[in-house]
Design brief:
- The protein is α/β, with parallel strands linked by helices.
- It has 2 domains: 62 residues; 217 residues, 3-Layer(aba) Sandwich (Rossmann fold).
- The chain is built from 11 helices and 9 strands.
- Helix 1 packs antiparallel against helix 2 and helix 2 runs antiparallel to helix 4.
- The structure holds S-adenosylmethionine.
- The site of S-adenosylmethionine (SAM) has 21 residues, from helix 7.
Length: 296
């Protein structure tokens, strides 16, 4: 494709996405321009009349066609920004979502009076939560636990990319609690799979590119909340926190699971769309009393 300006390339790409009803066509075309040509919105305005390199043009329109096929923008670009940090993403790992920033902000707020808290992020995926906490609280001792070997590959690269000194464990939340002492953590934070199994195939096309094991929360979406709360409650120090990200209508059910497992002061934080996105509570004294009785 010869004699075509950057501005024309952008307009054609955007029009192709719009014609195929790709949501956010303008934003996606701009991201792909930046990824392929290195031109952000400002440089497109300033230098849009420059000739576009023909090899880069071919690459750009390949990306546009991939996007039209439904492949998420983030996988095409290969990196995504979360909490101000860049994360590698691709098939095999969940793309960090804006909603999850609500959970990280909640966790950091709860930890603000700690000097060097011990934190574990269960179902860590790309490491978005664990790495952001470590970056914003360098004294924290942070572990990221994840089962998928593909996701672990991204987690390791992301920790390195962001110079985040965290412990990375390939493990299963259903069994790995046995490797930790009671009262070991000041906080357990988790964004586990939480979509109801039979709803996954009815959701937006892009989700079919993401790993099913990152999404599937069982027949009511709550399997992981039950397993994690029951298995890991005793690993939190009295007064320490369990912080969950959850689906739009799951807060009340998760609060009940947490109450049944001795947590107190259970609250929620709203995301930008005003959904109860983060559920959190404190490991209470009742739990300690139960443990003491068990010991006797
Ligand atoms: C919803 S994703 C969250 C990823 C990341 N924490 C984030 O917020 O972007 C859930 C993650 O749980 C992982 N996972 C699924 N089953 C697991 C298990 N039994 N033990 C540990 N991790 C698991 C998936 O591979 C996936 O990375």
């Amino acid at each position: 494709m010869d004699n075509i300006t950057l501005d024309e390339v952008y307009r054609r790409g955007r029009a192709m996405l719009e014609y195929q009803n790709i949501p956010d066509a303008e934003v996606d075309a701009l991201y792909l321009m930046e990824s392929v040509f290195g031109t952000d919105r400002t440089s497109l305005i300033l230098h849009g009349d420059r000739q576009a390199d023909s090899e880069l043009c071919r690459r750009f329109f390949d990306c546009i066609n991939e996007r039209i096929s439904g492949r998420p923008l983030q996988y095409i670009v290969g990196t995504w920004n979360f909490m101000g940090y860049d994360f590698f993403v691709g098939e095999g790992v969940l793309i960090p979502r804006d909603d999850t920033e609500t959970t990280v902000i909640c966790a950091l707020e709860l930890l603000k009076n700690y000097d060097s808290p011990k934190v574990i992020d269960l179902c860590s995926g790309s490491g978005a939560i664990a790495i952001s906490i470590k970056k914003m609280m360098p004294n924290a001792n942070v572990t990221a636990l994840e089962l998928s070997p593909d996701a672990i590959g991204y987690l390791k690269k992301n920790a390195e990319r962001n110079s985040a000194d965290i412990t990375i464990v390939c493990g299963d939340v259903a069994t790995d609690h046995k490797n930790y002492d009671d009262n070991e953590f000041d906080m357990i934070v988790s964004n586990p799979p939480y979509i109801v199994s039979n709803q996954i195939d009815t959701l937006q096309r892009e989700l079919s590119f993401e790993p099913r094991m990152a999404l599937d929360g069982g027949s009511d979406g709550l399997d992981f909340y039950r397993v994690i709360t029951e298995n890991w409650a005793s690993k939190i120090k009295p007064g320490g926190y369990l912080v969950y990200e959850n689906g739009e209508d799951e807060h009340e059910a998760i609060a009940k699971i947490m109450l049944a497992n001795g947590f107190t002061d259970i609250r929620y934080d709203l995301d930008l769309q005003m959904f109860k996105r983060t559920t959190y509570g404190q490991a209470g004294m009742r739990l300690q009393a139960v443990r003491a009785l068990t010991f006797l």
